[in-house]
Amino acid sequence: MPLRPGLLNEIRQILGPSLVPSLNSASAASDIYEAYIFSLICQAATAEGASVCFQSRLQPAPTTFIFRTSPGHIQSTRHDYGYAVIDFPNKPLLEAHLGIRVAGGSKVLHECDVSVLFHDEAELCRTSPNNIAPRASKMLLAVEAKFYDTSVDLYLGRAFLGLAMDVGAHKPFLVINRESASIEKLLSHKQKKWEHNIQPQNSVDVTRLHNAFQTVFKDFKAKY
Questions:
Q1: What is the Cα–Cα distance from 76 to 176, expressed in whole angstroms?
Q2: Is the pLDDT assigned to residue 1 strictly greater than 60?
Q3: Which of 55, 88, 132, 189, by CA, is between 20 and 30 Å from 158?
């Protein structure tokens, strides 16, 4: 199956038949890819025992799920952006988002392709009159989801190390659709979380990433 239809099919499966994604086969591959990783996170949460529902800033049950296609603040009113609410029984509520800015330990804002954070932190930022960004300390995980048609340069790995240093060493994942021996060697040496070849047809790699996300949720349940 060609890439875009394959990714879109995975996204539609997690959203369900009653919710229409704003992305289509004409959307940028990078935007579809981020939404695909978002769907994997939602699947992992469900597998770990959570109920997952999809909301937007204005609607508790939207009929169209609007994916962010450029980074912005969580309280942006440019569109009625969608997000996932992840509910584990007797645990704090979580939310999964695409393309929001978060504040690292340095107070510098970072753009997270996909992130999971505590609902109370997200709600605090949504209702603030100022553009307050969620704190990285209130984020469970962050994913840099990168789609490339060509080879991947080492600078991506170096940039990822900077992100990890500021948002929490064990929170971020680097997920790419290709292989890069230099990046993989660097991140393995630094003991960072990464996955390569993440596309629907690569079931071994996708399952490994799914299980890594599920482990994050398992640890969350044990901690809280």
A1: 27
A2: no
A3: 132
